[in-house]
Design a protein that fits this description.
alpha/beta; TIM Barrel; 12 helices; globular; binds flavin-adenine dinucleotide
């Protein structure tokens, strides 16, 4: 599985393949995982999710920008999305990738964009999450989170990845904060070297369970972001055993992935958030979804012949 994942993530970075896929557009299979290319697509699907008893974690696609003008354009796009999202019934969450708004250029530039977005998010009644990207960005992302919380933006959160060896100590530090930040826990989606991340899936899964258990007793709002049904069941049991209120835990899944699991969680009365990407820059996001499951290549093949 991890050979498949590493190979796919490696091939996906090959320029001609990316240009071909972008020319073919969302119909190549990405439309299963992405609401559409326009903001109105994201807002429309966010309303549909609300009607199904779920809530959207909206995401304007974009990452690894290398020019200040592009970071500015992206930050403006995120601000517009936050304002438009205000009309969708809550709860409302929006995710931003730090490299989308300049982390590959300058940390201060990114922090300033985050400050402005945190203000807009507050006015719009939206919780703002910083996605966690590849391992060289982790320190800066956690520093920005701490700075924003110190400035009173406690409606900003981030993500921890169970595949990183460092995550238990990052969690220790975050749990010491008052208030404890809202946190999303994921396994991790990037191609990381073995000196920073567990290469074996079993270790990543075990680390996830240990981190989730600690987060349940730790005090903050916990987003269990996984499609792993064994882990979801474990968290539900552990939460109930510890008497943690249901409202302190949400289950987050990706748009287009395991719709039956999404529905069964809603039917069981759980709070279910759906990570809902929209926008033209879908290539990197889409290839990570392909890397997670070989069967997803079937959508590409159907898109090629369809
Ligand atoms: C809401 C949300 C937010 C996320 N945010 C981040 C982030 O900020 N940073 C980051 O590094 N990663 C993020 N991720 C991705 C995450 O790190 C994993 O790569 C992804 O969730 C797949 O792992 P899994 O936990 O579902 O477990 P796995 O063990 O990979 O999968 C569990 C089950 O779900 C199925 N499944 C998993 N993925 C797919 C898929 N794409 N299509 C179909 N079936 C699938 C598998 O086949 C398996 O049956 C996020 C994931 C979610 C759900």
């Amino acid at each position: 599985m991890s050979i498949y994942r590493n190979t796919l993530l490696g091939i996906a970075g090959w320029g001609p393949l990316e240009r071909f896929a972008r020319r073919r557009g969302l119909s190549l299979g990405a439309n299963r995982f992405v609401a559409g290319e326009q903001l109105q697509d994201g807002i429309r699907v966010a309303r549909e999710l609300h009607a199904q008893g779920k809530h959207a974690v909206l995401d304007l696609l974009g990452e690894f920008v290398t020019r200040q003008e592009d970071a500015q354009t992206m930050a403006d796009g995120v601000a517009s999305a936050l304002r438009a999202f205000a009309d969708v019934p809550g709860p409302r969450r929006l995710s931003v990738k730090p490299t989308q708004i300049g982390l590959g250029i300058d940390e201060n530039l990114t922090l300033n964009h985050m400050r402005r977005l945190a203000e807009v998010a507050r006015e719009a009644g939206v919780h703002l999450a910083m996605d966690m990207e590849d391992h060289p960005r982790v320190d800066a992302t956690l520093r920005m989170l701490t700075a924003l919380h110190d400035e009173g933006h406690t409606h900003v959160s981030t993500v921890l990845q169970s595949y990183l060896y460092r995550t238990p100590s990052d969690l220790d530090r975050l749990l010491e904060r008052n208030p404890v930040p809202e946190l999303r826990l994921v396994k991790g989606a990037y191609k990381e070297p073995a000196d920073v991340a567990y290469p074996k899936k079993n270790d990543v899964d075990r680390a996830y369970v240990e981190l989730a258990d600690r987060m349940l007793v730790g005090g903050g709002l916990v987003h269990i972001a996984t499609h792993d049904e064994g882990i979801i069941r474990h968290v539900q049991q552990q939460r109930d055993k510890l008497g943690v209120p249901k409202e302190r835990v949400t289950f987050q899944l990706l748009y287009g992935v395991k719709p039956n699991l999404q529905k069964s969680l809603v039917d069981a009365g759980e709070s279910v958030g759906i990570y809902l990407p929209f926008g033209a820059d879908w290539y990197g996001y889409f290839t990570r979804r392909l890397a997670e499951r070989p069967a997803n290549l079937g959508f590409v093949l159907r898109g090629l012949v369809g």
